[in-house]
TrEMBL record:
Residue ranges of every copy of the D-isomer specific 2-hydroxyacid dehydrogenase NAD-binding domain listed in the record: 111-263
Binding site for NAD(+): D145, T182, D239, G264
Annotated catalysed reactions: 4-phospho-D-erythronate + NAD(+) = (R)-3-hydroxy-2-oxo-4-phosphooxybutanoate + NADH + H(+)
Pathway in which the depicted protein is active: Cofactor biosynthesis; pyridoxine 5'-phosphate biosynthesis; pyridoxine 5'-phosphate from D-erythrose 4-phosphate: step 2/5
Location(s) in or outside the cell: Cytoplasm
Organism: Thiopseudomonas denitrificans
Residues the record marks as active site: R215, E244, H261
PANTHER family assigned: FORMATE DEHYDROGENASE 1
Gene this chain is encoded by: pdxB
Protein name as annotated: Erythronate-4-phosphate dehydrogenase
Sorted UniProt keywords: Cytoplasm, NAD, Oxidoreductase, Pyridoxine biosynthesis
Erythronate-4-phosphate dehydrogenase dimerisation domain location: 296-378
Length: 389
């Protein structure tokens, strides 16, 4: 068996248990690289379609991501090529990114989070987990997810607290924090490309915050630039960009936070993605899985809360201990000083390739004093494991 995998996939060595593994740069994969392969393991930067796979031996494509907009799934199905993605692998990482971004915005804009109304567009693995955190913290949440509301999709993540589904128009009317967590889709009943165009952006409430950690083209970036040039009341956080790996420096300059598509880049999320695809690969080829993938222990395996810590302080401080979005923001902004768009694109990919280890909260246990039920509730709301010591 011959397996070709993107060189940026962590723990990809597990595939080598079953054949010859060749690791190559994902964005540059070409027909000749995959012609003799039986399985192709990618991340989101490889366009997998007829141009890449026509005439190849590939019978299984695994993408270690939730997003599938880089796969021509219709062509794969028509050509009898099985494919698999990794639902939920990095959802928790994105939730922690959004929490860190919100904390920063609340400090910069001097606005209490509890007093805002949160609108989540796309209530899948990420959106539903985020809604559960917000509801658990007692914040108001509205969800917009027409495929889930009107279609046949089962609820994403269980445990939602009866949050309400509304239309995008209603969500824009009522919410002053809008978080986008949809896939990129170009067709179907509810396509998401340019879901937020000029007219939707014009309807953002005064002082709104807009966070896109889904896919860049879900917001019309040209319209967003025009809007931000006219409105400094808005605060925008972009992790994803319309023409990645090229980022518009002018748009980034007007964003409160600008990061290089790393919301889902916790080490845990990336390893989980590989693990899920490894299992799908074994199922597809009828192979016996080797030993389980071992996740490295977190550098900080436990944290102790002092007796005087309040639940509000815990909620405020905990996400910041795990992730500081300003580091990623500064790294991206430094690349945008390069004159040449090609060099900026290469630098964007480099930041992602060399991304430092970031662990999720769940890799660390919070030690709480006895009789701290408010802290226990706050830790539960944040999705952080705890024990009473
Ligand atoms: N920035 C990152 O690092 C990062 C990380 C993970 C995921 N993502 C992106 O975020 C997306 C969401 O991730 P997920 O794990 O929650 O995926 P998911 O598939 O579990 O959820 C997506 C949800 O969006 C809904 N949706 C589809 N079309 C919609 C529309 N027109 N309006 C409103 N909702 C719509 C779907 O019904 C679904 O519930 C992924 O598809 C991926 O593109 C980005
Ligand atoms: O779709 C996903 O899972 C995320 O967007 C993921 O973070 C993409 O990462 P990449 O494949 O570009 O490394």
């Amino acid at each position: 068996m011959r397996i070709v995998a993107d060189e940026n996939i962590p723990v990809a060595d597990v595939f080598a248990r079953h054949g010859e593994l060749k690791r190559l740069p994902g964005r540059a994969l070409a027909t000749a690289d995959v012609r003799d392969a039986d399985a192709l393991i990618v991340r989101s930067v490889t366009r997998v379609d007829a141009a890449l796979l026509q005439g190849s031996n590939v019978r299984f494509v695994g993408t270690c991501t939730i997003g599938t907009d880089h796969l021509d799934t219709a062509w794969l199905a028509d050509n009898g090529i099985a494919w698999s993605n990794a639902p939920g692998c990095n959802a928790r990482s994105v939730v922690e990114y959004v929490l860190a971004a919100l904390r920063l915005l609340s400090m910069r804009r001097q606005a209490a989070l509890a007093q805002r109304c949160f609108g989540i567009v796309g209530a899948g693995e990420v959106g539903q987990r985020l809604a559960n955190v917000f509801s658990g913290l007692g914040w108001s949440v509205l969800l917009c997810d027409p495929p889930r509301q009107h279609g046949s999709k089962a609820p994403g993540v269980s445990g939602c607290y009866g949050q309400q589904f509304v239309s995008l128009d209603e969500l824009l009317q009522h919410c002053d924090v809008i978080c986008l967590h949809t896939p990129l889709t170009l067709d179907g009943d509810w396509p998401t490309r340019h879901l937020l165009g000029e007219s939707q952006l014009a309807r953002l409430r005064p002082g709104s915050w807009l966070i896109n950690a889904g896919r860049g083209p879900v917001i019309d970036n040209t319209a967003l630039l025009g809007t931000l040039r006219q409105r400094d009341d808005l605060a925008v956080v972009l992790d994803v960009w319309e023409h990645e790996p090229v980022v518009d420096p002018q748009l980034a300059a007007l964003c409160e936070l600008a990061t290089p598509h790393i919301a889902g880049y916790s080490l845990d999320g990336k390893i989980r993605g590989t693990e899920m695809i490894y299992r799908a690969f074994c199922r597809h080829f009828g192979l016996e899985e080797g030993a389980s993938i071992v996740y490295p222990a977190a550098e900080i395996s436990s944290l102790a809360a002092g007796g005087s810590l309040t639940a509000a302080q815990l909620l405020q401080r905990l996400p910041a201990l795990f992730y500081d979005p300003l580091t990623d923001d500064a790294a991206l902004r430094a690349t945008l000083l390069l004159d040449d768009a090609g060099q900026r694109a290469a630098a964007f990919d480099r930041l992602r390739k060399q991304y430092p280890v970031r662990r999720e909260m769940q890799a660390t246990c919070l030690c709480l004093p006895t009789g701290s039920s408010a802290l226990q509730q706050a830790a539960d709301a944040l999705g952080m494991p705890w024990q009473v010591v």
